[in-house]
UniProtKB/TrEMBL annotation:
Pfam families: Acetyltransf_7
Stretches the record annotates as Disordered: 162-210
Protein name as it appears in the record: N-acetyltransferase
PROSITE patterns: GNAT
Molecular-function GO terms, alphabetical: acyltransferase activity, transferring groups other than amino-acyl groups
SUPFAM superfamilies noted in UniProt: Acyl-CoA N-acyltransferases (Nat)
Basic and acidic residues bias (residue ranges): 180-191
Annotated InterPro entries: Acyl_CoA_acyltransferase, GNAT_dom
Domain N-acetyltransferase: 2-146
Length: 210
C-alpha cells in the first residue's frame, strides 16, 4: 500500500535528497530551472508517494509558466527512488497529479523529457514552443487537459509573474493554490544542456529530466 499526499514544507530536505540521489550532479543547471527560480510551486500538485513504513518512494513537482503569454504547467522534476523503480510508482504519481490539475482548471501541461516514455500519458512534441536554450526541441512535450488547449499556442516559455495565473483559468474551476512556503531552495546555473540522465533510472521508470 502507498499513500499519496501533497508535499509540506517539512518534507523539503527529504525531497531534495531524493532528487540528488536520482539525478546526476548539476541538475539545477538545467535551463528549466531558470523558469522556476523565484517562482512559487503549485503546491496542490507537488505530491509525495510514501510506502507503509512512511519512507519516501517518489516525488513530483509543478510550476506555473507562460507559453506565448498563455498559462501552462511545467511538470518536473519527477523522481522515483532507485530501489522502487520499475514498480509503476512514477506513472501513479503522473496520473494522479494530472487528474488533480485537470480538476483545478488547468488547460495545458509542458515538460522536457523522452517522448517514448511520456507518450503513454498523452504527451506529444510541441511545435513552435521554445524553452530557454540549450534545450533539444524534440524533448519539449505537451499535454492537453482541455480539448484544443495547445491549438495556436507557440512562442517562448517564460517565468510566471504570479498575478495572472488564477484569472486565466476556467471561470468555474477552483484556482490553483500556490503556497509561498513551498519554494525551491537551489539556484540554477547557466550554460548547461537540458539533456541529463537520472542516475540509476530503469528504462521504463526513469526520473523526469528537466
Amino acid at each position: 500500500m502507498f499513500e499519496i499526499r501533497p508535499e509540506a514544507p517539512a518534507d523539503e530536505y527529504e525531497v531534495e535528497t531524493l532528487y540528488d540521489l536520482c539525478f546526476a550532479p548539476g541538475r539545477t543547471a538545467l535551463s528549466s530551472y531558470r523558469l522556476r527560480e523565484g517562482v512559487d510551486r503549485v503546491a496542490d500538485l507537488c505530491l509525495l508517494l510514501r510506502d507503509q513504513g512512511g519512507f519516501l518512494q517518489a516525488a513530483i513537482r509543478y510550476w506555473p509558466v507562460r507559453v506565448g503569454g498563455q498559462p501552462a504547467l511545467l511538470l518536473g522534476p519527477i523522481a522515483v527512488h532507485p530501489t522502487a523503480q520499475g514498480e509503476g510508482l512514477g506513472g501513479l504519481l503522473m496520473r494522479d497529479s494530472l487528474a488533480r490539475a485537470r480538476d483545478m482548471g488547468w488547460a495545458r501541461v509542458l515538460l522536457v523529457g523522452d517522448a517514448p516514455y511520456y507518450s503513454r500519458f498523452g504527451f506529444a512534441r510541441l511545435e513552435g514552443v521554445e524553452m530557454p536554450p540549450p534545450t533539444n526541441p524534440d524533448r519539449v512535450l505537451g499535454l492537453e487537459l482541455q480539448d484544443g488547449a495547445w491549438a495556436g499556442i507557440a512562442g517562448e516559455v517564460t517565468r510566471e509573474t504570479g498575478a495572472e495565473t488564477t484569472s486565466a483559468l476556467a471561470e468555474d474551476a477552483a484556482p490553483p493554490h500556490i503556497d509561498a512556503t513551498c519554494h525551491e531552495t537551489r539556484r540554477p546555473r547557466d550554460g548547461q544542456d537540458d539533456d541529463q540522465t537520472a542516475a540509476g533510472a530503469a528504462p521504463d521508470q526513469r526520473s523526469e529530466r528537466s
